[in-house]
Amino acid sequence: MKVATYNINGINGRVDNLVRWLNEAKPDVVCLQELKTEDHKFPASILLDAGYHSIWHGQKSWNGVAILSRYGEIQETRRGLDGDPDDTHSRYIEAYINGVVIGCLYLPNGNPFPGPKFEYKLKWIKRLIAHAKKLQGFDLPVVLIGDYNIMPTDLDTYKPEKYLENALFRPEARKLWRALLKLGWTDAIRQLYPDERIYTFWDYLRNAYGRDAGLRLDHFLLNDTLKPRLLSAGVDKAVRGREHSSDHAPVWIELADQIN
User: What are the site positions for Important for catalytic activity (predicted)?
Assistant: First the structure.
């Protein structure tokens, strides 16, 4: 089972790029972030023609998450997180696919720091932690996937000193990341590549992609039930270099169908 995440940064403007990558990489399940489209404008028919059923939670101009599947119609289990009835951001959607609970998320950026956007980010992570605790009690394989907008360690940025005051790298957010891991979640990329610099995002400015001045923002967190099934992982970096690409690259993991 190949599961991928891709911050598409505007799905309708990049749907051709998305379909090209889907045809090449053939992931079984894909979590998308930053759809930047209202629900009625989501290109479901185009994706279905490419072989993928989809569910989505859109929002005009901002945010938005979706899950695509080659396994047929998707059993949605949740959209949005508990804990803030006034939160209107489309940042979380969840489904049960091929025996695995798939949580797709787009965590707030939080910049500028300090300020209300950063405080919202911290509150949102705490809400995610509360939901992650509930998921741990289901005795099912679970993976929480998406753009976390957190660089957990110095290895996850090309220049740590540049980001000391950036919400993506602030110790408050990284502390909450560690609290999430302590609940029993495993960072799949770091499980396989504990000491390598691996990036999933390159800014559009200052030739960041050409210089490989990247950040690792897109993560897969596996619960203990799913962790033994992790086989491999990678970043389809070349997709970032294509014309009119997102500033993120697709990231993927492969899971064994069953534990040997």
Answer: 218
